[in-house]
Amino acid sequence: MKRAEKVIITCAITGSIHTPSMSPHLPITPDQIAAESIAAAEAGAAMIHLHARDPRTGEPDQTPARYMEFLPRIKQQTNAIINITTGGGLGMSLEERLAPALATKPEIASMNMGSFNFNISGAAARIDKFNHEWEKPYLEGTRDFILSNTFAQIERGMRSMGDNGTRFEFECYDIGHLYNLAHFVDRGIVKPPFFIQGIFGILGGMGPDLENLMHVRLTADRLFGDNYHLSALGAGRHQMRFATLNALAGGNVRVGLEDSLFVGKGQLATSNAEQVRKIRAILAELSMDIATPDEARAMLETKGRNHVAF
C-alpha cells in the first residue's frame, strides 16, 4: 500500500440505501445535494461521492439529467474531486447504473468489484411510519436480492469509462473482490495507482470486525504491492472507528450520510459536513494532515477537473 503522507477524506453525500423516513437531514433535492456537497468540501473533504434522487420522493434516480441539476454547481463552487456512483439504486440495470458517469465523464467513478447478497431489510423494522410508499418494499425486498456485478459487467464498465479517462474507486465488500480486481489488473484493463474502498458492515459482505480491515490490507499488499491507496468505510455505527483505524495504518477515510446517519451514539448527524469535521478533528488529534483536492489528484493520478463533461 502507498502510505499516504496526507489523508484523503471522501464524503458520500446521500447514497441509495438510506430512505427519507430514516432522517430529516438526508439530502434529497438537487439543491440539498449541492449545498451539502459544497459544505462538506469546505469542511475538508477532498472527494465528494455522489448519487442522485427523485426530489419529490427521495427514490434513487440515475438519469444523467438529474445529476446535471447539481454537478455544475458543485464544480463551480468547490475544487473537490467529484466521484459518481455506478452502483445507482438497488435493482437498476447496468445501462442505468453507468449512464451518468458515461455522460459526465468524471475524474472518478465507483466500481463494485463483485456480485453478492446485499441485505438492508433490517432497517425497515426500525421505522414506525414511512413517508413514501416505495421505501418499505425497497428495503424489505433485499432479503431476496443479489447486487449483480459479474465479470462481464465489470469489464464493460471499466472499458467504457476508462475510454473517457475516468479512474475508479474500487468498492470491495468482500475479500474475493480484491482478487477480482487483481484479475483485471493482470489483464491490463486497469492501471495503477488503484484507489480501493474497503466496505465493512453490510449484511452479505465483510462484517464490521476491525480484524477484517487488517486482512484486507495484507491481502491487497500481496496482490498490488505499493500500487494502491486504501480507503475504508464502516457502515452505520462503525463509521468513525473504521476510518480512524485505517488512517492510523496509513490509509484514507470515507464518511457521509450514505454510510451512516449518525455522528455519535444515538445522535443523528445534521449534515455531511458535521461528519467531515468530526473525522478531521480526530485526524488532527493524531497529528495527521489531510489532503487538499489537488494533492488527492496527484496521489490518485486523475485527469483533472477541467477534463470532465459538466
TrEMBL record:
The keyword Zinc applies. It holds the Pfam family BKACE. InterPro entries: Aldolase_TIM, BKACE. Its cofactor is Zn(2+). The keyword Amino-acid biosynthesis does not apply. GO terms for molecular function: 3-keto-5-aminohexanoate cleavage activity; metal ion binding. Keywords: Metal-binding, Transferase, Zinc. PANTHER family: 3-KETO-5-AMINOHEXANOATE CLEAVAGE ENZYME, 3-KETO-5-AMINOHEXANOATE CLEAVAGE ENZYME-RELATED. This is 3-keto-5-aminohexanoate cleavage protein. It comes from Acidocella aminolytica 101 = DSM 11237.
